[in-house]
């Protein structure tokens, strides 16, 4: 069976590097949504807990239930209120309707829109938002925003930073009048965290950075945590002139020893159609089209490392490492090494 191996030392290194830059583990929110970007959320959570991290963010209540044993505080980012919210969690409220629909007395972080125009309360809606918060006795514990282009070297990062400072100032004033005196503010996810050197006493939300993928700052010393391995299903000699796989897209120039390995697009890999040169970690190319449950390559032994840096596959498929990682099937066994 295929395996995903997680490098514990690399993960601990990344967490320590992040905490050192922001100044305190207490100021880090570990984003572990979507099975921790395909890595295995509960596995990472156990290590993070052991070294002192106490706050995480997830996509929904299902993920929060899985991670509750590991963290003191859990923020649910993409919750759609149904009126039965739990006091165990903090819920992001992404619009005025969410504030109206959420259960009275719920713990909330107010999402504010500073430029991305995806989720969040507008500055012009803040007074109305606080009227709802007061009327429903909601427990406001923080406010946050999300940068739309922190991974791009443009002025938008600074525009949003300034917009958030303005909104934060107004939130603090209104919140103080209502008795909310200790709020957690956070605006910087991984790329914005890398670009910042003054965090204004804010928390940071780190997702892909904790997993070893820096967008800008190589000096952070981050190391990829995950490597993907496939096991041999069968082997054979592919004769000169013979093709392998659907459509025979690869044809051997001379006799060669090939093998079939037990990973395919059914396991979450993007489907390679045999065009171009997509390589394994050993730099051996995949041969022909990828199947649902397997691929072919030169026979390199019982096990082959498919990738240990998702950016290689992301570059080939013209996408981002997030997509390569998050698609990995939860049914692939994950192990620390």
Automatic annotation (TrEMBL):
<dbReference type="InterPro" id="IPR000821">
    <property type="entry name" value="Ala_racemase"/>
</dbReference>
<dbReference type="GO" id="GO:0030632">
    <property type="term" value="P:D-alanine biosynthetic process"/>
</dbReference>
<dbReference type="InterPro" id="IPR009006">
    <property type="entry name" value="Ala_racemase/Decarboxylase_C"/>
</dbReference>
<dbReference type="Pfam" id="PF01168">
    <property type="entry name" value="Ala_racemase_N"/>
</dbReference>
<feature type="binding site">
    <location>
        <position position="292"/>
    </location>
    <ligand>
        <name>substrate</name>
    </ligand>
</feature>
<dbReference type="InterPro" id="IPR020622">
    <property type="entry name" value="Ala_racemase_pyridoxalP-BS"/>
</dbReference>
<dbReference type="InterPro" id="IPR001608">
    <property type="entry name" value="Ala_racemase_N"/>
</dbReference>
<feature type="binding site">
    <location>
        <position position="118"/>
    </location>
    <ligand>
        <name>substrate</name>
    </ligand>
</feature>
<keyword id="KW-0413">Isomerase</keyword>
<dbReference type="GO" id="GO:0008784">
    <property type="term" value="F:alanine racemase activity"/>
</dbReference>
<feature type="domain" description="Alanine racemase C-terminal">
    <location>
        <begin position="225"/>
        <end position="337"/>
    </location>
</feature>
<feature type="modified residue" description="N6-(pyridoxal phosphate)lysine">
    <location>
        <position position="33"/>
    </location>
</feature>
<dbReference type="Pfam" id="PF00842">
    <property type="entry name" value="Ala_racemase_C"/>
</dbReference>
<dbReference type="InterPro" id="IPR011079">
    <property type="entry name" value="Ala_racemase_C"/>
</dbReference>
<dbReference type="GO" id="GO:0030170">
    <property type="term" value="F:pyridoxal phosphate binding"/>
</dbReference>
<keyword id="KW-0663">Pyridoxal phosphate</keyword>
<dbReference type="GO" id="GO:0009252">
    <property type="term" value="P:peptidoglycan biosynthetic process"/>
</dbReference>
<dbReference type="InterPro" id="IPR029066">
    <property type="entry name" value="PLP-binding_barrel"/>
</dbReference>
<dbReference type="GO" id="GO:0005829">
    <property type="term" value="C:cytosol"/>
</dbReference>
<protein>
    <submittedName>
        <fullName>Alanine racemase</fullName>
        <ecNumber>5.1.1.1</ecNumber>
    </submittedName>
</protein>
């Amino acid at each position: 069976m295929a395996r995903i191996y997680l490098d514990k030392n690399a993960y601990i290194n990344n967490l320590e590097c992040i905490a050192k830059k922001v100044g305190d583990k207490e100021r880090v929110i570990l984003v572990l949504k979507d099975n921790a970007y395909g890595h295995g959320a509960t596995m990472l959570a156990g290590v993070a807990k052991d070294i002192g991290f106490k706050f995480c963010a997830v996509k929904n209540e299902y993920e929060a239930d899985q991670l509750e044993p590991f963290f003191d505080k859990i923020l649910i980012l993409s919750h759609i209120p149904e009126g039965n919210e739990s006091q165990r969690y903090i819920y992001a409220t992404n619009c005025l309707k969410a504030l109206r629909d959420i259960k009275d007395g719920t713990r909330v972080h107010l999402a504010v829109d500073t430029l991305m125009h995806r989720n969040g309360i507008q500055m012009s809606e803040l007074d109305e938002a606080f009227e709802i918060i007061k009327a429903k006795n909601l427990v406001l514990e923080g406010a946050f925003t999300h940068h739309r282009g922190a991974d791009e070297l443009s002025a938008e990062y600074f525009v949003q930073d300034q917009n958030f400072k303005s909104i934060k100032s107004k939130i603090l004033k209104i919140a103080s009048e209502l008795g909310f005196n200790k709020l957690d503010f956070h605006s910087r996810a991984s790329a914005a965290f890398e670009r910042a050197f003054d965090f204004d006493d804010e928390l940071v939300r780190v997702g892909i950075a904790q997993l070893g993928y820096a967008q800008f700052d190589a000096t952070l010393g981050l190391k990829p945590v995950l490597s993907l391995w496939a096991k041999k299903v069968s082997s054979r000699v592919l004769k000169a002139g013979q093709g392998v796989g659907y459509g025979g897209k690869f044809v051997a120039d001379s006799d060669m020893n090939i093998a079939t390995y037990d990973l395919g697009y059914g396991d979450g890999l993007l489907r390679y159609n045999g065009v171009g040169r997509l390589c394994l970690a050993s730099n051996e190319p995949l041969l022909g089209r990828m199947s649902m449950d397997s691929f072919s390559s030169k026979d390199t032994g019982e096990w082959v490392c498919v990738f240990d840096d998702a950016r290689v596959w992301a570059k080939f498929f013209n996408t981002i490492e997030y997509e390569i990682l998050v698609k990995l099937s939860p049914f692939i066994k994950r192990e620390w090494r």
